[in-house]
């Protein structure tokens, strides 16, 4: 970038007035601000933190915590073992072994025989959630993820499915309707030139 | 007789040392609470709840135990004698200032002299002299640590304290001219008969209070330990109780500075309409005086903490500019003007 680039915007720092240069009015203004906060917390209970173990913090709906593997209406994992999440994962912490789906599951070709996420390597970026074509993997609001060993923190399919059972009521699946039929979704485009 | 005087002094010393150390422990709790409130947090409130005590009243005990039980790491590369000496200097210089600070009424007809060394004529001079010794603790700590961050912290501290010593000393001269004495009891007596120092010397008060912040290394002037650039500044290499002693020293300094502020500018034990005079003795009056002076000191300490959680740190050049280009000239003007007025009044009124 050149120094005389016409797109460059030069911003001057605001000029300090005489009162500003004496600092004291600004100091007083600052004291008023913090004074309000101190007074509010001390007498009006405006603290934004909670007393943690007794009061549980409720994270925002978009909080990205422990993963869960969603189940469909019949209790089967929705995952179709497409590996998209494992591919998208920047931390390479998802390990999936796919297998051919049993004949009784006509709506899919494969299912995950094993689905393992290393919760310690995960950076909770949510890429897996975004990559999944069937909304099978989701990040929940569970934030107190603790364990006594590294092995304990490697979540397998059973554990991930059980996270779904725990959080199902508090956080319903974001997309519950099955994906629309392919025939109705794709329609022949009308040619613009006719 | 002399033996009894001696025993009395020893008791006073022990009491003051004990009381101030205990106060410091609880001041740290107060400071943490104020910090939490200013940041919309709740702050410590657990320690002691097991024994039915409210508001984390046992927190200072836990903090102290932590300081004492922690591993005391002394790095191999430090200059050991000075490294060990430095925290002691910090704490001792902060303590001996209390020798001349009146905690209550002092005088020939009082019950007790609330001062370890009563009626020292050069009391304020002594406090200033001892206060500026504190910088040796910081410089030696920085130098003995053989660590660049600690060293820079120590250097900054020496430059800062030398600069702020000047406005600190000059800002109280006006008040001393008015009171006509360096003895703190005389200054209080003058204020109780005339007006509080902050009313007759507002500029002097502001200058004194500001330089007092710099002297105690508190925000907004805590450049010697600015965490962002210097890790921990002069105490980077200190741990456990050695670090705790610097901490203690800082808070003792705050108490001293608050006492001086109250004595010089907030009228000491004087409150209007209570009818307390320098001569009034008797149990109730004495208790009142002690209570008022401690209450005022507590208010001053609270204010200092409030400032700390309000203002961000100055940049180093701004700090120096403030001292040399504004505060020292202002202090000089204040001094000359006060001297002129005092001279005129003394010549033409009396
Ligand atoms: S949240 Fe990010 S890091 Fe964690 S499993 Fe999903 S894609 Fe990988
Ligand atoms: S969770 Fe979703 S993206 Fe990952 S393998 Fe299963 S279906 Fe594919």
Give a short synopsis of this structure.
The complex is a heterodimer of chains A (194) and B (350). By secondary structure, chain A is an alpha+beta fold.
Give me the secondary-structure topology.
The complex is a heterodimer of chains A (194) and B (350).
Chain A: H1 18-21, H2 24-44, E1 67-69, H3 84-88, E2 94-100, E3 110-118, H4 127-131, E4 137-139, E5 154-155, H5 157-167, H6 182-185
Antiparallel strand pairs in A: 1-4, 2-3, 3-5
Chain B: H1 2-38, H2 59-69, H3 80-96, H4 123-144, H5 148-179, H6 184-193, H7 197-200, H8 202-215, H9 227-230, H10 240-265, H11 283-308, H12 316-348
Helix pairs in contact in B: 1-2, 1-10, 2-10, 3-4, 3-10, 4-5, 5-6, 5-8, 5-12, 8-10, 8-12, 10-11
Structural class of the secondary structure composition of chain A? Answer: alpha+beta
Just give the CATH class of one domain in chain A: Alpha Beta
What is the typical, i.e. mean, pLDDT of chain B? 82
Ligand catalogue = iron/sulfur cluster
How many structural domains are formed by the residues of chain B? 2
What string, H for helix and E for strand, traces the elements of chain B in order?
HHHHHHHHHHHH
Strand order within the widest beta sheet of chain A: 2-3-5
Explained architecture:
The complex is a heterodimer of chains A (194) and B (350). By secondary structure, chain A is an alpha+beta fold. Among the domains of chain A are: 19-49; 67-167, Alpha-Beta Plaits. Helices cover 26% and strands 12% of the residues of chain A. Chain A has six helices and five strands; from the N terminus they run ααβαββαββαα. Chain A has a three-stranded antiparallel sheet with strand order 2-3-5. In chain A, strands 1-4 form a two-stranded antiparallel sheet. The longest helix of chain A is centred in the N-terminal third of the chain and has 21 residues, at 24-44. The radius of gyration of chain A is 27 Å and the shape is elongated. Chain B is mostly helical. Chain B folds into two domains: 1-69; 72-348, no CATH class. Helix content of chain B is 67%, strand content 0%. Chain B is built from twelve helices and no strands. Chain B has helices at 2-38, 59-69, 80-96, 123-144, 148-179, 184-193, 197-200, 202-215, 227-230, 240-265, 283-308, 316-348. The radius of gyration of chain B is 21 Å and the shape is globular. The N and C termini of chain B lie far apart (42 Å). Classes of the chains: A alpha+beta (194), B mainly alpha (350). Chains A and B meet through helix 2 of A and helix 1 of B. One iron/sulfur cluster binds at residues 79-85, 96, 131-132, 134, 136-137 of chain A.
């Amino acid at each position: 970038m050149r120094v005389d680039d016409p797109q460059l915007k030069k911003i001057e720092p605001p000029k300090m007035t005489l009162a500003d240069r004496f600092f004291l009015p600004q100091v007083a203004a600052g004291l008023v601000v913090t004074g309000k906060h101190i007074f509010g917390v001390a007498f009006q209970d405006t603290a934004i933190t909670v007393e943690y173990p007794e009061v549980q913090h409720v994270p925002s709906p978009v909080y990205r915590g422990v993963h869960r593997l969603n189940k469909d209406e019949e209790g089967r994992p929705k995952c179709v073992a497409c590996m998209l999440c494992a591919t998208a994962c920047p931390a390479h912490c998802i390990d999936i072994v796919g297998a051919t789906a049993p004949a009784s599951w006509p709506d899919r070709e494969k299912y995950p025989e094993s689905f393992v996420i290393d919760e310690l390597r995960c950076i909770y970026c949510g890429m897996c959630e975004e990559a999944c074509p069937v909304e099978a993997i989701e990040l929940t609001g569970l934030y107190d993820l603790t364990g006594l060993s590294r092995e304990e923190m490697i979540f397998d399919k059973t554990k991930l499915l059980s996270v779904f059972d725990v959080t199902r009521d508090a956080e319903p699946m974001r997309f519950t309707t099955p994906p629309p039929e392919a025939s109705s979704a794709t329609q022949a485009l009308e040619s613009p030139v006719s | 007789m002399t033996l009894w005087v001696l025993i009395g002094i020893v008791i006073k010393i022990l009491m003051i040392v004990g009381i101030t150390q205990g106060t410091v422990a609880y001041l740290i709790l107060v400071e943490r609470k104020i910090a939490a409130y200013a940041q919309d947090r709740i702050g410590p409130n657990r320690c002691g709840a097991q024994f039915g005590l409210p508001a984390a009243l046992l927190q200072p005990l836990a903090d102290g135990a932590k300081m004492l039980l922690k591993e005391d790491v002394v790095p191999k590369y430090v200059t050991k004698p000075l490294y060990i000496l430095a925290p002691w200097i910090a704490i001792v210089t902060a303590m001996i200032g209390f020798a001349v600070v009146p905690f209550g009424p002092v005088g020939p007809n009082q019950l007790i002299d609330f001062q370890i060394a009563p009626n020292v004529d050069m009391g304020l001079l002594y406090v200033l002299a001892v206060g500026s010794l504190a910088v040796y603790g910081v410089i030696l700590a920085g130098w003995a640590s053989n660590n660049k961050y600690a060293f820079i912290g120590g250097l900054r501290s020496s430059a800062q304290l030398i600069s702020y010593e000047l406005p600190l000393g000059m800002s109280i001269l006006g008040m001393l001219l008015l009171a006509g004495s360096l003895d703190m009891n005389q200054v209080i007596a003058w204020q109780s008969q005339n007006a509080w120092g902050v009313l007759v010397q507002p500029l002097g008060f502001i200058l004194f209070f500001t330089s007092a912040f710099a002297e105690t290394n508190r925000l907004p002037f805590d450049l010697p330990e600015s965490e962002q650039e210097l890790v921990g500044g002069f105490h980077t290499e200190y741990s456990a109780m050695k670090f705790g002693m610097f901490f203690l020293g800082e808070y003792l300094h705050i108490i001293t500075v608050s006492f001086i502020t109250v004595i010089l500018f907030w009228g000491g034990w004087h409150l209007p309409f209570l009818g307390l005079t320098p001569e009034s003795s008797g149990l109730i009056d004495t208790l009142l005086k002690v209570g008022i002076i401690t209450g005022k000191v507590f208010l001053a300490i609270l204010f200092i903490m409030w400032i700390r959680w309000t203002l961000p740190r100055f940049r180093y050049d701004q700090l120096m500019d403030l001292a040399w280009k504004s505060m020292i000239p202002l202090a000089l003007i204040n001094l000359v003007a006060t001297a002129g007025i005092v001279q005129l009044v003394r010549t033409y009124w009396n």
